[in-house]
Amino acid sequence: MSMLEQVRNGLIVSCQALDEEPLHGPMLMAAMARSAALGGAVGIRTNGVQEVEVISRLTGLPVIGIQKATDGQGRVCITPSFEAAKPLAEAGARMIAVDVRQTRPFGQPLPELLPRIREELGVFVLADCQTLADAENVAAIGVDALAPTFGFKENELGIEPDFALLKEMLRLGMPVIAEGGFWTAEQVVKAFELGAWSVVVGSAITRPMEITKRFVRAIRSLSPDRPYEK
Fold first, then answer.
1. Half-sphere exposure of 171 (CA within 13 A, CB side)
2. What are the pLDDT digits (tens) for 6-19?
């Protein structure tokens, strides 16, 4: 069974933590991934070679690997080069997600990068998009699945999925792994009802600091003078 078939109609949990967060590190993320696996997740998305290797071994689930890179101006790009992708595949990633925004700040040309990852590394490629134009562009180049990762909307509590964008991407006739702004079970169900291949949930499950902030924002929306807001 292919990796795409393994994750079809299931929940993928994104296990990532920023450098400054208390849960940062491969062992802590692996424990989080193991918890997600026991809860019924069908796949894991994670950042970093060590994380991919440990999580693959500990959970046995297919892993979507990414490598976040930052340039001298502090701009972030997901898996911007073949050199970033290769160690992820060697560590056990079954699929590699690549930032395919036409506005991405840096990275190798996508017509060169995407086919090379698929052909030379023998892994699936997930296109992290922001717009329908991004998705159309890489669908023509050749990828295995699309994701509206950067296409979320903002609300008073933080972010939420852009279901209009998801619908547009689904019309392209490719597997779409819904991602970006999912915080509730109802949102996940709606994505599947629209035709999503699978759904990725990250912060709502694996980032306690962000979860806490969301609750605090909700409380302060009722009473702005709450003294414990940071």
1. 9
2. 999 999 999 998 77
Distance CA 99, CA 106 (A): 10
d(CA 187, CA 92): 30
Which of 142, 145, 136, 66 is closest to 102 using CA atoms? 136
Containing H/E element for 156? none
Residue whose entry in the numeric block shows the structure tokens 């019924």: 40
pLDDT surpasses 70 at 223: no
Q: Which domain holds residue 143?
A: 3-222
Is 190 a domain residue?
Answer: yes
* 113 within 8 A of 104, measured Cβ to Cβ: no
Of 79, 94, 75, whose CA–CA distance to 12 is shortest? 94
CA angle 50, 53, 59 (to 5 degrees): 125
CATH code, domain with 24: 3.20.20.70
Helices and strands in the chain: count of H runs, count of E runs: 10, 12
178: amino acid identity, one letter: A
Average pLDDT, integer, range 109-136: 98
pLDDT of residue 230: 47
Instruction: Count how many domains the chain has.
Output: 1
The radius of gyration of the chain from alpha carbons, rounded to an integer in Å, stands at 17
For 127: left if phi > 0, alpha if psi spans -120 to 50, otherwise beta; the answer is: beta
pTM of the shown model: 0.92
d(CA 116, CA 95): 13
> 43-61: string of b/e by CB count within 10 Å (b at 16+)?
bbbbbbbbbbbbbbebbeb
